[in-house]
Design goal:
Elements lengths: L8 E2 L17 E7 L4 E6 L2 H9 L5 E8 L5 H14 L25 H9 L14 H16 L3 H15 L3 H4 L4 E5 L8 E9 L2 E9 L2 E8 L2 H7 L4 H6 L4 E3 L11 E6 L1 H7 L3 H17 L10 H7 L3
Antiparallel strand pairs: 1-4, 2-3, 2-4, 5-6, 6-7, 7-8, 8-10, 9-10
Helix pairs in contact: 3-10, 7-10
Length: 314
Amino acid sequence: MMDGFSQPHHVKGRASIADLFSLGKRCGLYILQFSDGEIYAGQALDVTRRYVQHRKVHCDIEKIRFKRVAKKTLNEEERTLIWMLEHEGYRLRNITFTSIPRGESDFDLIMSAEEQERWLKDTSYVDLSGSRVVDPELRRKYSRKFQRFAALPYSNEIMNVLRKYIHAGIPAPLRSELSFWACSCLPSYSYPNETVYSRINIHWQEVFTASVYKGDIVFSFHLALSPLEEAFGESLSPLLEKFPSLEATEHFYEPGGQNQINLVIEGAESAEVFMRQKEIVSAMRLFNLRLMKKGACAYSRYHCMDLADRITRI
């Protein structure tokens, strides 16, 4: 995995590493090693400046490896490097591009590790304990939008699918509402010939989108790729053959990491059958739980309480 990287430079206590890398030869990838065995992988146009920035945050840097990479390929090679390190079992301090969150998280305070493990292993288990959030100001903010939403064609079908998604794919949805997931109602940005009805957001990204495109209901899922490849192979052919309208896209969000795939399917009935597949539930749950453990929902201010009323009901 360290192909092309320099031997580790011992940098403990160094304020600068300017003497290690010549001017004009500082653009590339680097791997920091910390005293506790964890590592951090990243990219830099000037690795000596990036090192100084890291020292302001991390006081336990012990070693650094470096590999020169052309500026135009930095993003792609950084993602690949992080993916490979993660799969080889290294403990990464990175947040962006990683799939597996490290250490304890705020989410662990509302759903214990034991509960999380049960929820991941038993796809029939749904935890609806807790009570709904009460926020009159947030409710008032989007009440008119919800009235517009409810008056649109297909709104009932879409709410039914949203409800099934919440129950199947969101851990402890009542306890995690707002702090860790949010549902938008008719988000203002849309696309030609498409009306976005709602998005479910976790951490810094959408995980589920319901929209109508040229008169057809379309649902977009962001899920963990590994459970699907394990069940259906890298091509996912058996899954794609079972659902003729299902399409895999290259849409990708950095917060979800490399273990991520975007699947789009047409029709409310097809989406409901799709979400009854055990492998799909596993992929949704793994992806969403990992995102929640990475941090709070950045889109809670867009949460539509009236819509949440309908989609959290049993």
